[in-house]
Amino acid sequence: MGFELDAQRPKGWQPFSQPLLPRLFCVAADAHGCGHYRIMQPFASMQRNGMVEGMIAGVHLSPVAMERFQPTSLVLQRQVTDTQIKLLESYRDFSRAFKVFELDDLIQQIPIKSHFHGLMPKDIVKSLRRSLATVDRFVVSTDALAEQFQGFHADIRVVLNRLPVDWWGELPPSQRRVGRKPRVGWGGGSSHRGDLELIADVVRDLADEVEWVFFGMCPDKLRPYIHEFHAGVPIEEYPRKLASLNLDLALAPLENNVFNECKSNLRLLEYGACGFPVVCTDIVCYQTDFPVTRVKNRYKEWMGAIRMHLEDLDATAKMGDALRDAVQREWMLTEDRLVEWRDAWLPN
Questions:
Q1: Is residue 253 a contact partner of residue 198, using CB atoms and an 8 Å limit?
Q2: Which of 48, 98, 207, 339 is the most buried (most CB within 10 A)?
Q3: What are the CA-CA distances from residue 59 to residues 7, 10, 12 (Å)?
Q4: Handedness of CA 66, 27, 153, 125 (dihedral sign)
Q5: Residues of the chain whose pLDDT is less than 50?
Q6: What is the H or E stretch that residue 342 is in?
Q7: Burial class (CB in 10 A: 0-12, 13-18, 19+), 75
Q8: What are phi and psi of 329, to 5 degrees?
C-alpha cells in the first residue's frame, strides 16, 4: 500500500550525468502536417545525423521528471490554451532549460472558410502573448510571419520549411499523360475550402477538357465536375499518395489575405518533389525563385494559364522537371539545413 508506478520516470531517467549531445524535449502541437514539418521531422533528422538527442513528448513532464531529464532546450509548438500556458509557466519557473516557442501560422487571423477557424482561444492574441512571455526565443516559418509578430518577442528567428529526405527524397517517378485527357488537380489538407472555391468556375468550364483530380478535400460545389477524388491518408503515406496521382498539371490557389501571405511555400515544395508542373496564385508565399506559372485570382488568368500549359504538354513537363530539380537541390532537410534548425532551437 502507498506505492504506485511512475509512468514518467523512464522518460526522465538518463544514464549519463552529462548529456553527450544537446538534449531536446519537443512538444508538437499535433500529429499532422504542422507537427511533422516543424517539430517531428527536424528533430528526427537531427537525431539521425548525430546532432542532438532527446525526445518528442507524448505528454508534458512534471517539474520533477523534467529536472531528471535535464534538457538543453524545450521546444514548444503552438501551446496557447489556458492549460498549456500554465504548463509553460511552470517550465519557466522550475526548469533551467532554454525555452523555444514554435509557430508556423498567423493563428489570430485564420480565414473564415478554413476548417480551423474558431478552434483557437477567443482572445488568441492575449493567450499568445502569455505563452511568449515564458520563453527565450520565438521561431517562425517565414519572414512575413516574423514581420506580423514584430513586438511580440525580443528574439524572433525564421527557419524555413524543408522537405524531410526520407519522405520526399526518393519518390517513385510520377507518370505523365496516363489519362484519356490531361490530368489536372490539387492535393492538400482539409482547411482549403475558400482557396479551392476560387477556381470553381474554372473547374466547371474545363470539365470536358481535362480529368480533374482532387486529393484530401473537394468542396461540394466542385464535386459534379471532377474525374477522381482521393480521400486523405495518414501523413506518413501522403508523399507517395500525392506522387501517385500522376498529374500533368497541379494547381495551388490561395485566397489573397494576410494569413496566406504569411504561409510558407510548402505546397510548391511538395508538388515539386513529385515533378508536377504548377500554376499558382501570385502571392507573397509563392514568389520564390521557382519555375512555376503565377496568376492573379481572376477567372481569365487561371483559364489562360491552364490552357497555355495544356497546349504544350512537352514544355509543361520540362517545367515540372525543373521544379523537381530546384526542390531537391535547395529545399530538402539535409544536414546543412539541419544546422539552421539546431541553431534556432539551442541557446546561442
A1: yes
A2: 98
A3: 11, 13, 12
A4: negative
A5: 5, 8-10, 12
A6: helix 335-345
A7: buried
A8: -80, -40
Among 44, 290, 24, 263, smallest CA distance to 161 is for 263
What is the CA 170 to chain-centroid distance, rounded?
19
Where residue 43 falls (left for φ over 0; alpha for ψ -120 to 50; beta otherwise) is alpha
- CATH architecture of the domain covering 18-162+333-345: 3-Layer(aba) Sandwich (3.40)
Can you give the pLDDT at residue 95?
A: 93
- What are the residue ranges of CATH 3.40.50.2000 in the chain? 18-162+333-345, 167-330
Question: For residue range 242-287, what is the model confidence (pLDDT) as tens digits?
Answer: 999 999 999 999 999 999 999 999 999 999 999 999 999 999 999 9
Query: In CATH, which of 3.30.300.10, 3.40.640.10, 3.40.50.2000, 1.20.1050.40 is domain 167-330?
Result: 3.40.50.2000
Give the C-alpha separation, 89 to 134, whole Å. Answer: 6
- Cell representation of residue 96: 533551467
Whether 277 contacts 317, CB under 8 Å: yes
Sheet holding 98-103, edge to edge: 53-56, 23-27, 73-77, 98-103, 137-140, 156-158
C-alpha dist (Å) from residue 286 to 116, 257, 266, 291, 326: 22, 13, 9, 11, 14
Q: Where are the alpha helices (DSSP H) in 287-334?
A: 299-311, 313-330
